[in-house]
Amino acid sequence: MNEVLKAMEERRSIRSFKPDMPDRETIRSIVRAGLYAPSGMNRQDTVILCVTSPEMRRRFAETNREIGGWADGFDPFYGAPVIFAVLAKATDPTALCDGSLVLSNLLLAAHATGLGGIWIHRAKETFERPEFRSLLKDLGIDGDWIGVGHCAVGYPSGSIPSAPVRKEGRFYEI
Q: Within 10 A of 30 (CB to CB), how many other CB atoms are there?
């Protein structure tokens, strides 16, 4: 079977990570895959924030936990040492689709490099907050951006889940 198709079938959402930080080269190869995602009219109006600083990761996790309404101490990123935050230009008519394609590429690339990943929501609410708007400004990211999602990445801890049986009635040939 083709390697890409195989990765698409085998990739699973990972909900338990080892604390070990992947090497910089692997992280960059995952980012590169995300940057090569398709975009409407090839506008490439998405950005990826790669969060590896323990303090910044803690801020992202705490904000996500608070927005999600979980108890103190819960980590909505399941211990993953790397968090990718994907944003898209809010004025772009294909913003959510483009950002979703970036996230999909990040997840597949993480799997292809032997890491695990999971898509985590609440990026929209995170980047509506003044402190995260300020973070974008500090990074030199100007304009109106919408948080599309987070991709938590790291070495899986424990076994990889099996794929559930695919539901019937989801394909029609006409």
A: 28
Non-local (6+) Cβ contacts of 166 within 8 A are: none
Domain count, the chain: 1
Segments of the chain with pLDDT less than 70: none
pLDDT tens readout for residues 25-41: 999 999 999 999 999 99
Phi, psi of 154 (to 5 degrees): 175, -170
Give me the residue label for tokens 């399941």. 78
Q: Are 26 and 87 in contact (CB under 8 A)?
A: no
What gap in Å lies between CA 42 and CA 39, rounded to an integer? 5
Q: Is the pTM of this model over 0.85?
A: yes
Q: Is residue 66 part of a domain?
A: yes
- In the chain, the amino acid numbered 65 is R
Residues pairing with 149 in the sheet = 86
Average pLDDT, the chain: 97
* Helix residue ranges, H only, 22-174: 24-35, 54-68, 95-112, 123-126, 130-138
Residue 113: give its domain's CATH number.
3.40.109.10
Query: Does 168 map to a domain?
Result: no
**Residue 150 is assigned to a structural domain of this protein:** yes
